[in-house]
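Deliverable D2.4 — example input (structure tokens):
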């Protein structure tokens, strides 16, 4: 194709395959389904939904460039765009970055045309152009021609006379004369030199927007001066607007108050010893593993009930937070972390409740660094966002932990990008969270809950002074960009969660955290699960040497405590957890022995001798005498009372002990009565009877129907096999190179079929399928096989869908033609009876 393209489709046809692949990669929604040809691609690229998604992914300067094009003439020369962005004085930084911005808009098919005729696609212009209902972020109003539409010819002539312009014969030339005056720097400056000071003050207040204001029926003289000369134009019964051309003159040609050609710097930076950062991160990673392990242990016999609407109740969340010794918000994070890693789930029973999954058992057996890698992999890819727990949904209902509606699609991309920004700093360097948030807002200014920097619509009846009371966007007196949009909140949560997981230490990215992030990948490209897993494995290998080695001993003390000087080997920790209660955690865990804990170990089938032997084998200090006495004393009493099912009974060889129990007022709820000197009957269940007597200070043991002591081991409760929740994608996935190559070939082939020059064949109507007789079709096919030429055919598939194709026949036999299909880029077989007709292509078409 030669000459200037007249449409976006024509320009797309001139692009290389690499250029088309870049467009499809940047805007993957255009691939679903694959366009049939370039015309379909251009049409889809101009739809509102696709353009909105593309505009949302522009950085602030590229977006400012698109906004400037939306208020510029259409088409717009590059020099005019440069003047709008850099102003009359020029800005070297803007001039240096503007080619990049225009190239980015071109690559995403939001701008097309040569440099002397840049065109913003119509849908993008409609989205970004200023209007009374949707003001532009530039703060500019309508043009003189738009604002004066509907104004009487007589009023236009009055404005020309007041402005010192000669009268014209029609409204069109009058508007053109007024536009020329406002666009002429010298003549406009001379006009403003004659303006009253109060009039100039009003213009200054409307200068950076909003450009609308209100006036009374009898405007003040300084306002009337502006109205008489068209510097303010009526925009309703009592509203006025500052025309765009006049505002641009007052702004010295700039469309934006503060262009932002370069991203904000990540500063101030604080440098630390990278080894200290790694050690701090490793310590926190170990704490994270211990917290998740404690959660699984807490829910070993089953967790809280599942609410009817899904999730867990506020009361159960508080209980979990108390058990983990943390806040409710952090408890929600640990719950969602375990849920995202597939370690906890709903059991699906009739009385549905949460519990650990079978995968949790496998996770507990892994080395610490591998367990951490599994948690972090799930966290990076998860769209479930614990930070929104407790907030209200669209219907005003509080969002519950582990419940539905917690997915926020942008979360994985924000996590990766926030960590990538930290990875771009030197090792051991940290920056304030506000610096990271500012950079992210520059990179995606429209990706939050609301478009950042948009100028609010003016309230009805505002005067020009009131309408311009707020400082201009981006000015020194302007309020900072909101930090409560979704993207900013996701970034804040990311930084806090990365510290909790040990990905960062003291605010800086650790070495193993750096291994998680591929800084060479595109910011918008989500890594595959395989890539994420490989990165997590590399990070775990770096973390492993930093984690504390497990120890196989404790230090017993005379105050009935045991100190673990480090993380214990799992069998030792599990056994000690049955025999003693954890009193405090930290660098050294303190266990306390109590009668209840010793009885718990005896109930689990351990004898007093076995407990003494266990402590002797695993203590670096001798077993203290008070602890030995405690074990022997509890063991001596353990099992003297026997509980069985009668409904329930109590049996004891010591009838005096039974008499003591019957006489105790605390036994009244158990409703005991003596059946024999050594037997009491109770009107309650064995479990309740066991709990009741233990609460009274006794140490009964349960027995079977044969009279044997029952060993009360805790039966763990597990869900059926469960998979981790799948992330909710943020739009279509990024296509892989294979799909891109196939899609470009299909689009090229479809375009060839739609645009190839054909030899005349019964003069079919424009756009219709070729029509030939069966004999003509067969003869043409056989001739094409011999001459190795390509044909244009009309084809109707089994579903009745008609299409045009370009094929190169290879063989014709048995009522079928085998041919290379240029449209699908593959060899296919077609039934001849489904071919409506055939036409030869011009010699230079293929």
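Example output (designed residues):
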């Amino acid at each position: 194709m030669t000459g200037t393209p007249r449409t976006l489709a024509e320009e797309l046809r001139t692009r290389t395959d690499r250029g088309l692949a870049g467009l499809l990669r940047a805007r993957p929604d255009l691939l679903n389904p694959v366009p049939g040809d370039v015309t379909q691609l251009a049409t889809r690229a101009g739809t509102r939904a696709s353009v909105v998604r593309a505009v949302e992914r522009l950085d602030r300067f590229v977006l400012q460039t698109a906004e400037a094009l939306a208020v510029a003439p259409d088409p717009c020369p590059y020099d005019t765009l440069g003047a709008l962005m850099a102003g009359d004085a020029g800005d070297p930084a803007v001039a240096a970055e503007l080619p990049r911005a225009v190239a980015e808009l071109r690559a995403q098919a939001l701008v097309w045309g040569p440099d002397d005729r840049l065109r913003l696609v119509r849908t993008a212009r409609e989205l970004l152009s200023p209007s009374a209902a949707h003001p532009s972020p530039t703060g500019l109003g309508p043009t003189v021609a738009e604002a004066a539409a509907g104004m009487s010819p007589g009023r236009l002539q009055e404005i020309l006379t007041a402005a010192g312009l000669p009268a014209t014969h029609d409204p069109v030339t009058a508007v053109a004369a007024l536009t020329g005056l406002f666009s002429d720097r010298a003549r406009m400056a001379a006009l403003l030199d004659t303006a009253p000071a109060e009039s100039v003050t009003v213009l200054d207040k409307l200068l950076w927007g909003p450009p609308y204001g209100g006036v009374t029926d009898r405007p003040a003289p300084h306002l009337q001066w502006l109205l008489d000369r068209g510097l303010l134009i009526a925009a309703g019964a009592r509203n006025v607007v500052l025309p765009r051309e006049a505002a641009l003159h007052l702004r010295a040609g700039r469309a934006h108050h503060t262009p932002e050609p370069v991203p904000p710097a990540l500063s101030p930076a604080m440098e630390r010893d990278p080894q200290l950062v790694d050690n701090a991160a490793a310590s926190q990673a170990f704490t994270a593993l211990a917290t998740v392990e404690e959660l699984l242990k807490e829910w070993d016999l089953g967790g809280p009930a599942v609410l009817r609407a899904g999730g867990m109740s506020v009361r159960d969340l508080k209980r979990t937070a108390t058990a983990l010794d943390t806040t409710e918000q952090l408890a929600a994070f640990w719950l969602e972390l375990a849920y995202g890693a597939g370690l906890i789930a709903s059991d699906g029973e009739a009385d549905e409740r949460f519990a650990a999954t079978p995968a949790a058992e496998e996770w507990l057996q892994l080395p610490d660094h591998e367990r951490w890698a599994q948690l972090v992999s799930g966290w990076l890819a998860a769209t479930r966002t614990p930070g929104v727990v407790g907030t209200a949904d669209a219907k005003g209902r509080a969002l519950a932990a582990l419940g539905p509606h917690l997915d926020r699609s942008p979360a994985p991309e924000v996590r990766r990008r926030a960590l990538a920004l930290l990875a771009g700093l030197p090792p051991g360097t940290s920056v304030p969270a506000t610096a990271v948030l500012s950079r992210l807002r520059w990179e995606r200014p429209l990706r939050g809950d609301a478009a950042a920097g948009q100028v609010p619509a003016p309230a009805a009846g505002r005067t020009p002074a009131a309408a311009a009371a707020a400082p201009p966007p981006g000015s020194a007196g302007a309020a900072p960009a909101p930090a409560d949009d979704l993207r900013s909140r996701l970034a804040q949560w990311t930084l806090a969660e990365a510290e909790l997981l040990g990905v960062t230490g003291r605010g800086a990215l650790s070495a193993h955290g750096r291994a998680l992030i591929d800084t060479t990948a595109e910011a918008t490209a989500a890594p595959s699960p395989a890539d994420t897993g490989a990165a997590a494995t590399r990070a775990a290998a770096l973390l492993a040497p930093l984690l504390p080695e497990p120890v196989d001993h404790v230090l017993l003390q005379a105050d009935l405590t045991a100190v673990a000087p480090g993380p214990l080997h799992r069998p030792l920790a599990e056994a000690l957890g049955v025999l003693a209660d954890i009193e405090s955690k930290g660098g050294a865990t303190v266990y306390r022995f109590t009668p209840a804990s010793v009885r718990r170990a005896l109930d689990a089938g351990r004898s007093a001798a076995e407990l003494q032997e266990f402590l002797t084998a695993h203590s670096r200090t001798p077993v203290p005498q008070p602890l030995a006495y405690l074990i022997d004393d509890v063991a001596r009493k353990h099992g003297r009372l026997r509980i069985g099912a009668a409904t329930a009974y109590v049996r004891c060889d010591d009838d005096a002990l039974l008499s003591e129990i019957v006489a105790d007022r605390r036994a009244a709820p158990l409703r005991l009565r003596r059946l024999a000197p050594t037997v009491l009957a109770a009107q309650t269940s064995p479990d309740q009877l066991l709990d009741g007597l233990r609460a009274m200070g006794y140490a009964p043991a349960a027995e079977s129907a044969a009279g044997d002591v029952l060993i009360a081991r805790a039966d763990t409760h597990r869900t059926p096999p469960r998979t981790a929740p799948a992330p909710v994608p943020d739009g279509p996935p990024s296509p892989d190179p294979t799909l891109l190559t196939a899609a470009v070939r299909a689009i090229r082939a479809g375009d060839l079929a739609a645009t190839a020059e054909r030899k005349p064949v019964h003069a079919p109507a424009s756009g219709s399928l070729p029509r030939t007789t069966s004999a003509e079709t067969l003869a043409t096919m056989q001739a094409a096989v011999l001459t190795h030429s390509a044909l244009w055919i009309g084809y109707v598939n089994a579903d009745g869908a008609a299409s045009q194709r370009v094929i190169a026949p290879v063989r014709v036999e048995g009522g079928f033609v085998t041919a290379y299909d240029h449209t699908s880029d593959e060899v296919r077989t077609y039934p001849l009876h489904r071919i409506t007709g055939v036409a030869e292509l011009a010699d230079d078409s293929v």
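The longest strand covers residues 802-813.
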